[in-house]
Amino acid sequence: MNTTTVTTSATQAPRAAPGIARTVLGIFKLRIGVLIMVSALAGLAVAPGPTPGFWQVLVLALSVLVASAAAGAFNQFAEAESDRQMARTRRRAFASGALKTSPFWLAVIALMLAAALAAAAWVVNPVAALFIFLGAFTYGVVYTLWLKRRTWLNIVVGGLSGSFAVLAGAAAVDPSLGPLPWLLAGMLFLWTPPHFWSLAIACRDDYAAAGVPMLPVVVGIPRAARIVHGNALLLVAVSLLLPLYGAGLVVLAGAACGGVYFLLRTWQLALAPSRATAMAAFFGSMVQLSVLLAAVAVDATLR
What we know:
The chain has helices at residues 2-26, 30-46, 54-78, 80-83, 93-96, 103-124, 126-147, 154-158, 160-173, 179-202, 204-210, 215-219, 221-239, 249-271, 275-302. By secondary structure, the chain is mainly α. It folds into two domains: 25-176, UbiA prenyltransferase (Tetracycline Repressor, domain 2); 178-303, Four Helix Bundle (Hemerythrin (Met), subunit A) (Up-down Bundle). α2 (30-46) packs antiparallel against α3.
């Protein structure tokens, strides 16, 4: 019997390890972090000037990713109680109790952010490091602690975190920043509200139960759906201005194709608000941004 117990424990231990790793990695919101990192690289790609060396680009990318991961982990740490009240988030590690909200994790988060900022300041430049810090601070503190439970404008201001990533990438090329990086940063700022409000429409009851004043909770789903479509129109209009400030025709094509697809989804949402059309608009925003950023990368390669 003892032998069987030992054998069973030994065979179960390796199986548990991947589960623990997934639990820990889940707190860092790596999918969002990768998107933020790609946005920083897009900022680097559109900035006029000599491309930084390989190690500078690598350190920039990893610094943005690690700083974003630290901000994401802090968001889950601080929102553990609120996350327990929402079906979409109650299985997160801190909310479910899989990981305890202990000072240890705050220390890990602080060390991650400090390491990312130090590496960026040393290898890239202090201006890029400053923008990386502002992005993490905006999401982790301004959005999570100050605004999320106070105003429906929470995600509007929180959207600046993606804009700061673009500016960090551009600052790696030229800290003085030209008009094209600022315009791309503005586009990222405009992208976040219709992206997140689409999800908030689909999860409206969850946010209401948790007492979070997301737009559809405050103004109702039909009006929120119309606002999402209006914001999407503004977003696409701004993205089409990129070629006027130095981007190539590939970027224009990407902005047009991705933008038309997103507008189709938000129009369907405005006409018939439902969970299905809201999620379609949410994923449509991902398509729009992915197509545009891919076009920026191709355009930079062809230049």
